[in-house]
Amino acid sequence: MKKFRIVILSVILGLLLCACGEAPVYSEIQTKRMEYAGMIATSYGINIISEVAMDPDVISGVPYTDYTYDELEKFLADYIGFNVDGYAFANAVDSFQKGISEAGEIVSIGEPVVTLDGNEIIVDVECLCETRYADIEMIFTNDVYNPRMISAAFNARYTLGEKMSKAGLNTVIGMGTVFIMLIVIAFIISLLKPFVGVVEKVSASVKAFFAKIKAAFKKKDKAEEGIDKAVEQIVKNETAVSADAELVAVIAAAVAAYEGTTDTSGFVVRSIRKIKRQ
Protein backbone atom coordinates (compact mmCIF):
# COMPACT_ATOMS: atom_id res chain seq x y z
CA MET A 1 0.00 0.00 0.00
CA LYS A 2 2.83 2.36 0.84
CA LYS A 3 4.59 1.66 -2.46
CA PHE A 4 1.35 2.30 -4.35
CA ARG A 5 1.03 5.75 -2.76
CA ILE A 6 4.60 6.58 -3.71
CA VAL A 7 3.90 5.63 -7.33
CA ILE A 8 0.72 7.73 -7.45
CA LEU A 9 2.51 10.76 -6.00
CA SER A 10 5.36 10.35 -8.50
CA VAL A 11 2.90 10.29 -11.42
CA ILE A 12 1.10 13.38 -10.15
CA LEU A 13 4.41 15.22 -9.69
CA GLY A 14 5.48 14.28 -13.22
CA LEU A 15 2.22 15.58 -14.67
CA LEU A 16 2.61 18.85 -12.78
CA LEU A 17 6.15 19.28 -14.11
CA CYS A 18 4.98 18.57 -17.64
CA ALA A 19 2.18 21.11 -17.27
CA CYS A 20 4.65 23.74 -16.05
CA GLY A 21 6.94 23.11 -19.00
CA GLU A 22 4.28 23.56 -21.68
CA ALA A 23 4.80 26.47 -24.08
CA PRO A 24 2.32 29.34 -23.69
CA VAL A 25 -0.49 29.49 -26.19
CA TYR A 26 -0.93 32.80 -28.05
CA SER A 27 -3.79 34.05 -30.16
CA GLU A 28 -3.41 34.09 -33.95
CA ILE A 29 -2.96 37.87 -34.04
CA GLN A 30 -0.35 37.76 -31.29
CA THR A 31 1.51 34.94 -33.01
CA LYS A 32 1.66 36.97 -36.25
CA ARG A 33 3.01 39.99 -34.38
CA MET A 34 5.77 37.88 -32.82
CA GLU A 35 6.64 36.26 -36.14
CA TYR A 36 6.77 39.66 -37.85
CA ALA A 37 9.09 41.01 -35.12
CA GLY A 38 11.40 38.02 -35.61
CA MET A 39 11.39 38.59 -39.37
CA ILE A 40 12.23 42.29 -38.96
CA ALA A 41 15.15 41.43 -36.67
CA THR A 42 16.72 38.78 -38.88
CA SER A 43 15.84 40.16 -42.34
CA TYR A 44 17.14 43.69 -42.11
CA GLY A 45 17.22 45.01 -38.53
CA ILE A 46 20.48 43.36 -37.50
CA ASN A 47 22.05 43.97 -40.92
CA ILE A 48 21.22 47.71 -40.95
CA ILE A 49 22.54 48.29 -37.44
CA SER A 50 25.73 46.30 -38.04
CA GLU A 51 26.43 48.13 -41.33
CA VAL A 52 26.01 51.53 -39.68
CA ALA A 53 28.22 50.37 -36.81
CA MET A 54 31.03 49.53 -39.26
CA ASP A 55 30.43 52.54 -41.53
CA PRO A 56 28.58 55.43 -39.78
CA ASP A 57 27.72 57.25 -43.05
CA VAL A 58 26.59 54.20 -45.03
CA ILE A 59 22.90 55.21 -44.95
CA SER A 60 23.00 58.53 -46.79
CA GLY A 61 26.65 59.47 -47.10
CA VAL A 62 26.32 61.49 -43.90
CA PRO A 63 27.26 60.15 -40.43
CA TYR A 64 24.18 59.10 -38.52
CA THR A 65 25.39 61.24 -35.60
CA ASP A 66 24.68 64.36 -37.69
CA TYR A 67 20.95 63.57 -37.54
CA THR A 68 18.72 64.38 -34.61
CA TYR A 69 16.87 61.41 -33.17
CA ASP A 70 13.64 62.49 -34.85
CA GLU A 71 15.37 62.99 -38.22
CA LEU A 72 17.08 59.62 -37.96
CA GLU A 73 13.83 57.95 -37.05
CA LYS A 74 11.98 59.54 -40.01
CA PHE A 75 14.76 58.74 -42.50
CA LEU A 76 14.88 55.04 -41.50
CA ALA A 77 11.10 54.77 -41.71
CA ASP A 78 10.74 56.56 -45.10
CA TYR A 79 13.69 55.10 -47.04
CA ILE A 80 14.23 51.70 -45.41
CA GLY A 81 10.87 50.94 -43.84
CA PHE A 82 12.46 50.30 -40.45
CA ASN A 83 10.14 51.44 -37.66
CA VAL A 84 12.58 52.27 -34.89
CA ASP A 85 13.03 54.81 -32.13
CA GLY A 86 15.86 57.20 -33.07
CA TYR A 87 17.45 57.20 -29.62
CA ALA A 88 17.23 53.40 -29.42
CA PHE A 89 18.86 53.10 -32.86
CA ALA A 90 21.82 55.31 -31.84
CA ASN A 91 22.35 53.28 -28.65
CA ALA A 92 22.06 50.04 -30.65
CA VAL A 93 24.79 51.23 -33.04
CA ASP A 94 27.08 51.96 -30.09
CA SER A 95 26.44 48.49 -28.67
CA PHE A 96 27.09 46.82 -32.04
CA GLN A 97 30.34 48.76 -32.49
CA LYS A 98 31.63 47.48 -29.18
CA GLY A 99 30.41 43.92 -29.84
CA ILE A 100 31.88 43.75 -33.36
CA SER A 101 35.24 44.98 -32.01
CA GLU A 102 35.23 42.00 -29.64
CA ALA A 103 33.72 39.26 -31.85
CA GLY A 104 34.37 40.49 -35.39
CA GLU A 105 31.93 41.02 -38.22
CA ILE A 106 28.73 38.97 -38.37
CA VAL A 107 29.12 35.93 -40.63
CA SER A 108 25.73 34.28 -40.25
CA ILE A 109 22.47 34.86 -38.37
CA GLY A 110 20.61 32.04 -36.63
CA GLU A 111 16.89 31.49 -36.15
CA PRO A 112 15.16 33.99 -33.89
CA VAL A 113 13.71 32.97 -30.53
CA VAL A 114 10.71 35.22 -29.87
CA THR A 115 9.09 35.64 -26.47
CA LEU A 116 6.42 37.95 -25.10
CA ASP A 117 6.99 40.01 -21.96
CA GLY A 118 3.93 42.12 -21.22
CA ASN A 119 3.71 44.84 -23.86
CA GLU A 120 7.13 43.99 -25.35
CA ILE A 121 8.22 41.43 -27.89
CA ILE A 122 11.75 40.15 -27.24
CA VAL A 123 13.73 38.63 -30.08
CA ASP A 124 16.94 36.73 -29.24
CA VAL A 125 19.22 35.75 -32.12
CA GLU A 126 22.44 33.76 -32.06
CA CYS A 127 25.02 35.03 -34.56
CA LEU A 128 28.29 33.54 -35.75
CA CYS A 129 30.98 36.19 -36.00
CA GLU A 130 34.56 36.08 -37.24
CA THR A 131 36.16 35.16 -33.92
CA ARG A 132 33.32 33.96 -31.69
CA TYR A 133 29.58 33.60 -31.29
CA ALA A 134 27.42 36.50 -30.14
CA ASP A 135 23.92 36.97 -28.77
CA ILE A 136 21.80 39.79 -30.13
CA GLU A 137 18.67 40.92 -28.32
CA MET A 138 16.12 43.20 -29.95
CA ILE A 139 13.00 44.47 -28.22
CA PHE A 140 9.89 45.61 -30.10
CA THR A 141 6.61 47.15 -29.05
CA ASN A 142 3.67 44.80 -29.12
CA ASP A 143 1.79 46.70 -31.88
CA VAL A 144 -0.84 45.18 -34.13
CA TYR A 145 0.66 45.92 -37.55
CA ASN A 146 4.21 47.22 -37.46
CA PRO A 147 6.23 46.58 -34.26
CA ARG A 148 8.59 49.39 -33.32
CA MET A 149 12.12 48.58 -32.19
CA ILE A 150 12.85 50.25 -28.86
CA SER A 151 16.10 48.52 -27.88
CA ALA A 152 18.91 46.36 -29.27
CA ALA A 153 22.12 44.99 -27.78
CA PHE A 154 25.12 43.02 -29.12
CA ASN A 155 26.77 40.72 -26.55
CA ALA A 156 29.89 38.79 -27.52
CA ARG A 157 29.86 35.29 -26.06
CA TYR A 158 32.85 34.28 -23.94
CA THR A 159 33.80 30.90 -22.52
CA LEU A 160 33.96 30.36 -18.77
CA GLY A 161 37.75 30.38 -18.88
CA GLU A 162 37.78 33.69 -20.75
CA LYS A 163 35.34 35.20 -18.26
CA MET A 164 37.46 34.03 -15.33
CA SER A 165 40.67 35.34 -16.87
CA LYS A 166 39.00 38.68 -17.61
CA ALA A 167 37.69 38.89 -14.05
CA GLY A 168 41.15 38.04 -12.72
CA LEU A 169 42.72 40.69 -14.93
CA ASN A 170 40.23 43.28 -13.68
CA THR A 171 41.02 42.27 -10.09
CA VAL A 172 44.76 42.59 -10.65
CA ILE A 173 44.33 45.98 -12.31
CA GLY A 174 42.12 47.20 -9.48
CA MET A 175 44.46 46.00 -6.72
CA GLY A 176 47.49 47.31 -8.62
CA THR A 177 45.88 50.73 -8.89
CA VAL A 178 45.19 50.76 -5.14
CA PHE A 179 48.79 49.80 -4.29
CA ILE A 180 50.19 52.41 -6.67
CA MET A 181 48.05 55.11 -5.04
CA LEU A 182 49.20 53.99 -1.58
CA ILE A 183 52.84 54.19 -2.69
CA VAL A 184 52.26 57.67 -4.10
CA ILE A 185 50.62 58.80 -0.84
CA ALA A 186 53.50 57.35 1.21
CA PHE A 187 56.00 59.17 -1.03
CA ILE A 188 54.16 62.47 -0.57
CA ILE A 189 54.12 61.98 3.21
CA SER A 190 57.89 61.28 3.18
CA LEU A 191 58.42 64.57 1.34
CA LEU A 192 56.46 66.41 4.02
CA LYS A 193 58.50 65.03 6.95
CA PRO A 194 61.08 67.94 6.98
CA PHE A 195 58.21 70.35 7.39
CA VAL A 196 56.73 68.49 10.35
CA GLY A 197 59.26 69.98 12.84
CA VAL A 198 58.66 73.49 11.53
CA VAL A 199 54.91 73.04 11.81
CA GLU A 200 55.26 71.74 15.37
CA LYS A 201 57.45 74.71 16.39
CA VAL A 202 55.01 77.18 14.88
CA SER A 203 52.14 75.40 16.61
CA ALA A 204 53.98 75.51 19.97
CA SER A 205 54.73 79.22 19.53
CA VAL A 206 51.11 79.98 18.74
CA LYS A 207 49.95 77.99 21.76
CA ALA A 208 52.43 79.83 24.05
CA PHE A 209 51.31 83.20 22.70
CA PHE A 210 47.66 82.46 23.37
CA ALA A 211 48.56 81.05 26.82
CA LYS A 212 50.26 84.35 27.73
CA ILE A 213 47.27 86.33 26.57
CA LYS A 214 44.98 84.10 28.60
CA ALA A 215 47.18 84.47 31.72
CA ALA A 216 47.23 88.26 31.32
CA PHE A 217 43.45 88.36 31.16
CA LYS A 218 43.24 86.15 34.26
CA LYS A 219 45.55 88.52 36.21
CA LYS A 220 43.48 91.47 35.11
CA ASP A 221 40.30 89.76 36.22
CA LYS A 222 41.81 88.96 39.65
CA ALA A 223 43.01 92.57 40.11
CA GLU A 224 39.59 93.91 39.20
CA GLU A 225 37.99 91.43 41.58
CA GLY A 226 40.31 92.62 44.44
CA ILE A 227 39.49 96.26 43.73
CA ASP A 228 35.77 95.50 43.79
CA LYS A 229 36.10 93.77 47.17
CA ALA A 230 38.12 96.66 48.65
CA VAL A 231 35.55 99.22 47.48
CA GLU A 232 32.78 97.11 48.92
CA GLN A 233 34.53 96.93 52.31
CA ILE A 234 35.14 100.70 52.34
CA VAL A 235 31.48 101.33 51.62
CA LYS A 236 30.50 99.00 54.48
CA ASN A 237 32.84 100.76 56.92
CA GLU A 238 31.60 104.22 55.93
CA THR A 239 28.03 103.06 56.37
CA ALA A 240 28.82 101.74 59.85
CA VAL A 241 30.58 105.01 60.92
CA SER A 242 27.72 107.09 59.61
CA ALA A 243 25.24 104.99 61.57
CA ASP A 244 27.25 105.42 64.84
CA ALA A 245 27.42 109.24 64.41
CA GLU A 246 23.68 109.45 63.95
CA LEU A 247 23.12 107.32 67.06
CA VAL A 248 25.41 109.59 69.16
CA ALA A 249 23.56 112.72 68.02
CA VAL A 250 20.21 111.22 68.96
CA ILE A 251 21.40 110.19 72.44
CA ALA A 252 22.98 113.64 73.08
CA ALA A 253 19.76 115.39 72.09
CA ALA A 254 17.77 113.14 74.39
CA VAL A 255 20.05 113.84 77.37
CA ALA A 256 19.96 117.62 76.71
CA ALA A 257 16.17 117.55 76.65
CA TYR A 258 16.19 115.68 79.92
CA GLU A 259 18.44 118.34 81.47
CA GLY A 260 16.23 121.14 80.13
CA THR A 261 18.72 122.58 77.73
CA THR A 262 19.46 122.41 74.01
CA ASP A 263 23.21 122.68 74.20
CA THR A 264 24.93 119.34 73.68
CA SER A 265 28.49 120.64 73.39
CA GLY A 266 29.37 119.62 76.91
CA PHE A 267 28.33 115.98 76.42
CA VAL A 268 30.99 113.36 75.67
CA VAL A 269 29.95 109.79 74.68
CA ARG A 270 32.63 107.37 75.74
CA SER A 271 31.05 104.22 74.43
CA ILE A 272 27.77 102.75 73.32
CA ARG A 273 26.71 99.35 74.61
CA LYS A 274 23.66 97.38 73.86
CA ILE A 275 21.74 96.38 76.99
CA LYS A 276 20.00 93.10 77.05
CA ARG A 277 16.39 93.55 78.07
CA GLN A 278 14.91 91.02 80.44
| The CATH architecture of the domain at 22-157 | Roll
Task: Estimate the strand proportion.
Answer: 5-15%
The computed structural class is alpha+beta
Estimate percent helicity.
55-70%
N- to C-terminal separation? Answer: 122 Å
Overall pLDDT score:
78
Tell me about this structure.
A hairpin with a 3-residue loop joins strand 3 and strand 4. The mean pLDDT is 78. The chain has a domain of 136 residues: Roll (Nuclear Transport Factor 2, Chain: A). The protein is 63% helix and 13% strand. Strands 1, 2, 3, 4 and 5 form a five-stranded antiparallel β-sheet that branches. It is α+β, with helices and mostly antiparallel strands and 278 residues long.
List keywords for this structure.
alpha+beta; 5 strands; five-stranded antiparallel β-sheet; 278 residues; 5 helices; Nuclear Transport Factor 2, Chain: A
Task: Give the SSE map.
Layout lengths: L1 H19 L7 H27 L14 H11 L6 H18 L2 E4 L3 E5 L2 E10 L3 E9 L7 E8 L3 H100 L19
Helix pairs in contact: 2-4, 3-4
In short:
Helices cover 63% and strands 13% of the residues. With 278 residues, it is α+β, with helices and mostly antiparallel strands. It has a domain of 136 residues: Nuclear Transport Factor 2, Chain: A (Roll), CATH 3.10.450.
